[in-house]
């Protein structure tokens, strides 16, 4: 029933003007602020339940909303409103030799299903991006965030209706049963695309079991490689920021690689700085020579910790760093710190991840930081969308062909 209502609402949304959609987005942002007390109270219920149930700190951090985070969600919606509308954009066009006018234009998917874990900010981000790109959205968050999501969606739906659009373009799928996830994954013909956002288990389950096409987002085993030509002050700041600025997100650094030529100078500095920030370093033999470093296993190098832990190794050269990344990376984000332009160019060409950064923290792989406004997720696949998914990635295309009595 929810999918059928979303399908019906999507037809009207596809014809909405940019002005109508932007008014709705501004109203949605205002609604988050107006209903701040109710949303934060609902979120407090979810957080208390998670803490009482012994949820890990990183999960609680992802779940928790604050006035600042709620204001950031509202600002993200306003930024999306200010972005160009992708719907109707001409991707390419030409006049064929026979006189036919050919245009490839962006169009909405129609109905997007979001299946995600304890991240209530995703509720607003997904609703805003889908609405701006002309898509109705079915939001299936986790039961751990059920009160938060219900309060957020209630505010958003009211705002959409007040702005003159069908409120059913934003709907919350009940999270009280696993069956609702299965129904969403089997709603081929009503739901056009599914986007899972969460841990590896959730993503794998949706990819393997869904009959609806899936845009796969991925976990983030992100690497920082400190090259022999690195400015070590820059490197220290980048590593500490990438690991500690917020540990529970997929663009936090989980692995550190250091060129052997700078290991003697850099390892004591970086280990001390990380340990001062509360980070446990899981290192190879070179790192283990320093106090407090624990031995790294093969599993450590493949781990997305989402905590104050990092794997670390010394590599003999740039090629060894690239081989290590190819073996263990989740193809999300990798960074190199170097003042050698040739090394930077080789690294960016050889490393096959959705985002590759030079002399910058992995924490910048984010739709907001890239200027996309909010993001729907970060895709690590290679079909259609890759990296932070903004408005254009939430569209398909169709060909519009205009003739003058042409026959073949």
TrEMBL record:
InterPro entries reported in the protein's UniProt record: Ald_DH/histidinol_DH, Ald_DH_C, Ald_DH_N, Aldehyde_DH_dom, G-glutamylP_reductase_CS, Glu-5-SA_DH, GPR_dom
Record keyword Amino-acid biosynthesis present: yes
Pathway(s) annotated for this protein in UniProt: Amino-acid biosynthesis; L-proline biosynthesis; L-glutamate 5-semialdehyde from L-glutamate: step 2/2
Catalytic activity: L-glutamate 5-semialdehyde + phosphate + NADP(+) = L-glutamyl 5-phosphate + NADPH + H(+)
CDD domains per record: ALDH_F18-19_ProA-GPR (cd07079)
The Aldehyde dehydrogenase domain, residue ranges: 4-279
Record's keyword annotation contains tRNA processing: no
Subcellular location, principal: cytoplasm
Location(s) in or outside the cell: Cytoplasm
EC number: 1.2.1.41
Pfam families given in the database record: Aldedh
Biological role stated in the UniProt entry: Catalyzes the NADPH-dependent reduction of L-glutamate 5-phosphate into L-glutamate 5-semialdehyde and phosphate. The product spontaneously undergoes cyclization to form 1-pyrroline-5-carboxylate.
NCBIfam families recorded: PRK00197.1, proA
Name used for this protein in its record: Gamma-glutamyl phosphate reductase
């Amino acid at each position: 029933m929810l999918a059928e209502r979303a399908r019906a609402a999507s037809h009207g949304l596809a014809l909405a003007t940019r002005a109508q959609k932007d008014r709705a987005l501004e109203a949605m942002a205002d609604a988050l602020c107006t209903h701040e007390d109710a949303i934060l109270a609902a979120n407090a219920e979810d957080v208390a339940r998670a803490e009482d149930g012994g949820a890990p700190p990183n999960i609680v951090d992802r779940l928790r909303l604050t006035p600042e985070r709620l204001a950031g969600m509202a600002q993200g919606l306003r930024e999306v409103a200010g972005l160009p509308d992708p719907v109707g954009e001409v991707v390419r066009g030409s006049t064929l030799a026979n006189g036919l006018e050919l245009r490839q234009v962006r169009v909405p998917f129609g109905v997007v299903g979001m299946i995600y874990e304890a991240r209530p900010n995703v509720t607003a981000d997904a609703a805003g991006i889908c609405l701006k790109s002309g898509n109705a959205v079915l939001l299936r968050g986790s039961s751990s965030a059920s009160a938060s999501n219900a309060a957020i969606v209630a505010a958003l739906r009211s705002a959409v209706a007040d702005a003159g659009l069908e409120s059913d373009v934003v709907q919350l799928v009940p999270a009280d049963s696993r069956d609702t996830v299965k129904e969403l994954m089997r709603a081929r013909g009503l739901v056009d695309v599914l986007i899972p956002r969460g841990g590896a288990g959730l993503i794998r389950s949706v990819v393997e079991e869904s009959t609806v096409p899936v845009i796969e987002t991925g976990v983030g085993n992100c690497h920082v490689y400190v090259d022999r030509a690195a400015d070590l002050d820059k490197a220290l700041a980048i590593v500490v920021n990438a690991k500690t600025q917020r540990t529970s997100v997929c663009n936090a650094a989980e692995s550190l690689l250091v060129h052997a030529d700078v290991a003697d100078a850099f390892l004591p500095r970086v280990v001390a700085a990380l340990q001062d920030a509360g980070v446990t370093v899981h290192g190879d033999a070179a790192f283990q020579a320093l106090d407090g470093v624990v031995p790294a296993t093969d599993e450590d190098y493949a781990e997305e910790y989402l905590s104050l832990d990092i794997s670390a190794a010394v590599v003999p050269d740039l090629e060894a760093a690239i081989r290590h990344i190819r073996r263990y990376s989740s193809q999300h984000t990798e960074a190199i710190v170097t003042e050698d332009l040739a090394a930077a160019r080789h690294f960016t060409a050889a490393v096959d991840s959705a985002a590759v950064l030079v002399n910058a923290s992995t924490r910048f792989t984010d739709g907001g930081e890239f200027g996309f406004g909010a993001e729907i997720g970060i895709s690590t696949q290679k079909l259609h969308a890759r990296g932070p998914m903004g408005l254009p990635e939430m569209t398909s295309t169709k060909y519009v062909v205009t003739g003058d009595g042409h026959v073949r």
